[in-house]
Amino acid sequence: xxxxxxxxxxxxxxxxxxxxxxxxxxxxxxxxxxxxxxxxxxxxxxxxxxxxxxxxxxxxxxxxxxxxxxxxxxxxxxxxxxxxxxxxxxxxxxxxxxxxxxxxxxxxxxxxxxxxxxxxxxxxxxxxxxxxxxxxxxxxxxxxxxxxxxxxxxxxxxxxxxxxxxxxxxxxxxxxxxxxxxxxxxxxxxxxxxxxxxxxxxxxxxxxxxxxxxxxxxxxxxxxxxxxxxxxxxxxxxxxxxxxxxxxxxxxxxxxxxxxxxxxxxxxxxxxxxxxxxxxxxxxxxxxxxxxxxxxxxxxxxxxxxxxxxxxxxxxxxxxxxxxxxxxxxxxxxxxxxxxxxxxxxxxxxxxxxxxxxxx
Length: 360
What we know:
The chain is of the alpha+beta class and 360 residues long. It is 24% helix and 36% strand.
C-alpha cells in the first residue's frame, strides 16, 4: 500500500463573509491515523474536502510529501474516499464495486482479480463477492466501500463520518476492524468524526476543531488527560467545572485554590491563567471520603445516586448551586450510601486543570 505524509499549510476557506476554515496548519505523518474531531459546523468536513480536491481553498496550501497538490483534480490526487453515505453502485456486485476504480485506471484483468481477491479477504467479504448491495447489511456495505477505497492503493485514505449511519453495535465492531486494517496496510488516514469515543479509540493523533480553528492537536491520551483549553476539557469526556480563587503557592509547581465547599492544592500544567479561574476535574478522579477525615477536599451533601450496573454515579451538592458529579465502581456486597450523607471530595493535585473562564 502506498502512503505519504500530508501537510496542510495555513489553509483558509471563506464563503463570503463566513469563514469555514481559518488558517489551519497540520503535519500528518506517513502511515498515521489522524482524526479531525468536532461538532457540526466546526470545519472538519470542509477541510477534508479541500484535501480531497472537492473544494478549493481560499488561501494556503496542501502538500502530499513535498508536492503541492492544489492544482490537481480529485482523480489525480491518488486518494481513497469513504463517505458518510455508502455511495455503492446498486446494480454492481460486491466484486464489481471494489474493482471499479481499478478498471477506471486501465489495469489488466488478472491484476484486478488479484487485488480484488486480496481486499475481499482483508475485509472478510470473500463469501459475498457475487451479491448486490441490497443483499448486504449496513456493516457489510461499509466494508465494500472501505475495500473499494483501499484497493486502488491510495497515498492517503480520507474518511468522512463513515460509521454514522450504522447502529451502535455495528459501529463499535466496525471501528475496531477499520483501525486494525489501517495498521496492517499502513496507509496514511485522515478521519472525520464528531464521536469522541470513536476518535479516542481509533486515532494516533486527534485535532479538535472549533469554529474553523484548531483547539488542540495531540495524542488521544493527552487530549483526554491534558486538555489545552477549557473547550477541549468540556468537549472531550466529562468534567466538573468550579470557580476557583488562587490563594498562593503550595510548593514547587503547585498552587493553593479556594473553591465552593473547601480548598484544594493543584499541580500546574503550564502557566497559571491570569484573572478569574475555573478548576476542572473528572468524575472518576474524585474519591468520596468521610467529611472529618482532614486534608484537602470539598465538603458537600449527597444529592442523587444513579445505579448503572458496573458503575455508580453520585451527585454531591456543595451549596450555592454547585453540583459535582462523581463516578465510582459498583462492588459486590457494598451497600450504596444514603441520600443526604455528608462527604469530603478528595482529588489528586495532578488531576486538577485550571482554565480562564470562557465568555458565553
